[in-house]
Amino acid sequence: MTETVVMDRASASRRRYFPSAFGGLTFAGFAICLTALPLAVSLTGYQLNLLMQAATYAIAVFGLVVVLGYAGQINLAQAAFFGLGAYCVALGTTDFGLGFWLSLLLAVCVAAFAGAVLGLASLRLGGHYLAMVTISFQTILSLTLNNWISLTHGPDGVRGIQRPAILNDSRYFLAFCLAVLFTAGFGVYRLKRRRLGRAMQAVRDNEIAAAVSGIDTFATKVFAFTLSAALGGLGGGLFAGGFTYISPDQFTFAESVVFLTMALLGGVTSAFGAAFGTGLLILLPEWLRFLKVVYLAVYGAAVVLIMVFLPDGLWGIVTWAKRRLISEPPVDRQSIAPLPLTRQAACSAGQALLEVKSLSKHFGGLKAVDEVNLSVRQNSVHALIGPNGSGKTTMLNVLSGLYRPMGGSIVFDGGTITNAPPHTRTRLGIARTFQNIRLFPAMSVLDNVMVGAEQSGDLFSSARAVRNHAFSALEFVGLAERAYRDIGSLSYGHQRLVEIARALAGNPKLILFDEPGAGLNHGEKDRLVELLKQLKDRGLTVLIIDHDMAMVEQVAERITVLNFGRHIADGASRDVLRNPDVIAAYLGEVRSDAA
Amino acid sequence: MLLELDSVTAAYGRVLALKGLSLTVNDGEIVTLLGANGAGKSTVLRTISGLMTPQSGQVRWAGASIGGMKPGVIAGLSIAHVPERRRIFPGLTVRENILLGGSNLKGVSRAELEADVEKNFAIFPEIKPFENALGWTLSGGQQQMVAVARGLMARPKLLLLDEPSLGLAPLIVQQVYRVISGIREQGTTVLLVEQNAQMALSVADRGYVLETGTIVAEGLPSQLLDTDEIRAAYLGGRAKPN
């Protein structure tokens, strides 16, 4: 019996991994052939220049795939980073005599450093503020290149840029650029399916959910920005080497917009799409030259039409076709291991795992949470109830670190966490779900849960282990068969279950549920009750908000009742539900089966 | 017959949500749709209100085919949809949110609309203190009350309610259900999706049970409550009256 299971698992994993290995080999073969192309085919100088431009631009556009496509942060200064890299190589090989390789290294480092500084200074803003900051940076750099003549040679530009002796022939240099292009493109493609890439996409899709899944959202954004700038610098450095002459007008804001258009035209979430878009935008004007005077107008119109009808870029067609033609891989539920929930709290059963003392959070004049005390015992199920707007969700937001409290203290498992950021609390073992479901809608069900598993601490040794653990968590809530589905195709209730799976995948000690029963029918609520009981049996502690008193009474040992931000009752479930104040403020009528 | 769905098929991408589903709603009825998550209940409402386009089949409103028409046009036919997940306008005040519900009414004076808003505040006194607060500042349950009030503002012939009690305190749920059973007196027909089957059947004239995109049972509340399979699947063993 065991043997057949192992066999199944082996064959299932072969099915899953064979195509990607096959794809990788195809890509490698394709890349080597294209890299060798300039050496095998005779190209005119003009064709060489076009290809050189396309290759170096595409490397910079990969940077936009990382920062905009993956992490969702706008960067309107990619030409500035490209220019920084180009000037490093230009000045390094001429005025400073550093040689090409050292200059190229410098190009990447200087651009990355500039990106990191800009990111650290501005990524707390986001949105249109970030766009403004990047435009300003772009303008400052353009002004500097033009006016610091003693260093940059001003508007005249830099000529006589050196290449290494071995790559002095333009054909060899182009082959080198193509090799870098494919390496960088492959790296960016792989990043999307790695821990870091998933973290970036999670930040893009829902920053709050990313934070409570254990992702340091600010660090992730700064890293994406730095990586994007580094790729810009790399592309720029190669550009300078390729053309041996550069001038400031090649790195203006208009050029940043061109980079952005290339990324969006091809498909900003895909390295292949971005490379494709770059090639198209460089070649399209050449193909249209036969139109003579109107060619720029036709070119502009073509770009507008593609944008309007293919909002996901040209690569969107490929993704769409793939989704239509290739069916979801089957899920072999037999081979899924049961979910291990093994993390033990330091305190013993009966002691308080979470101790909240006179916690307050006000919004203007509204006292949403007003000096609330709450003690949740280790390995218990504790319910927080109260009328709509009584401060329950605000309380949960303060506990998970999304809001800073204005007063009071929170102690979790022996440590004070009153002012700790959300991702730190998650790594310490506090997980949560949201009342208005917060998932990562552009990622698959499985990827959503994998984010929860891999970000909550260094619990797993390999990507395979994370994947298996995510499957276990999905099986625990009964959704393993839908692992490869899009979030949008799931019903409201199933989306709730995905959220629960994501929270459980991080091996929490305490889990905060905000109305997990909303949107579930009786049968499904019965299963939820079973699930909550299982969690308790395995040593977890649960704090739950819900309005279904039949359910609350079934699972919770203790109840705390809030009204207008203050707690009005606290104690064993049965006593609290019969408290006249609670009935008047919340329950309305005495429940017939509460006796 | 006010509304008829005839062999309607609808899909999200490759996933079929409705598989040739047929149902009818008569004038003045309260009809409820029951079923597990993913059975297609919300999709039925979305198809009626025009948020989804049926792949095949007919949606008939007072005899005329409305399948595939734009949501704005259908709203003008006096069909109001209170969608799941609230979907109130976060940047508008509570009063503005509710007022907007009456935007399909032609030839009704502003004063009359304001009077309707006050009527809704009388139904949900809990949100009256927040009438000038922005939508997003309200708690989830308060937003739900705004969404239901907005639906009532349309004075619709047919009100599509998708889980109106979601996230509401027990006290408020009792209020909402008193409102639903009172709506009928104003000549409004209701198609109600609800997870709480007991509660829904207590106000409904008829019910349908959905499973993976098709109707598997229909009948009077008493008939549905007496069917063992339905009790087991959707009503649960634990919430029996007494």
Sequence of strands across the biggest β-sheet of chain B: 6-7-8-3-9-10
**Rg of chain A, please?**
29 Å
Shape of chain B: globular
Radius of gyration of chain B: 18 Å
Q: What are the low-pLDDT stretches of chain A, counting only 5+ consecutive residues below 50?
A: 1-19
Helix segment tally of chain B: 9
**Architecture of one domain in chain B, CATH level 2?**
3-Layer(aba) Sandwich
- CATH fold title of one domain in chain B: Rossmann fold
- How widely separated are the two ends of chain A? 49 Å
Unreliable sequence segments of chain B: 237-242
Structure in words:
The complex is a heterodimer of chains A (595) and B (242). By secondary structure, chain A is α/β, with parallel strands linked by helices. Chain A folds into 3 domains: 25-259, no CATH class; 351-427 and 514-586, Rossmann fold (3-Layer(aba) Sandwich), CATH 3.40.50.300; 430-507, no CATH class. Helix content of chain A is 57%, strand content 11%. Chain A has 23 helices and 12 strands. In chain A, the strands form 3 sheets. In chain A, strands 8-9-10-5-11-12 form a 6-stranded mixed β-sheet, sandwiched between helices. A 4-stranded antiparallel β-sheet of chain A has the order 4-3-6-7, with helices on one face. In chain A, strands 1-2 form a two-stranded antiparallel sheet. Chain A is elongated and about 90 Å long. Chain A starts with a helix and ends in an 8-residue tail after the last helix. Mean pLDDT of chain A is 88; it is low at 1-19. Chain B is an alpha/beta fold and 242 residues long. Chain B has a domain at 1-78 and 202-242: Rossmann fold (3-Layer(aba) Sandwich). Chain B has 9 helices and 10 strands. In chain B, the strands form 2 sheets. Chain B has a 6-stranded mixed β-sheet with strand order 6-7-8-3-9-10, sandwiched between helices. Residues 237-242 of chain B have low confidence and may be disordered. Classes of the chains: A alpha/beta (595), B alpha/beta (242). The A-B interface holds A 323-324, 363, 386-390, 392-393, 435-437, 485-486, 488-494, 515, 518-526, 547, 549-550, 554, 585-589, 592-593 and B 12-15, 34-39, 42, 84-86, 126, 137-142, 144-145, 163, 166-174, 195-198, 232-239, 241-242.
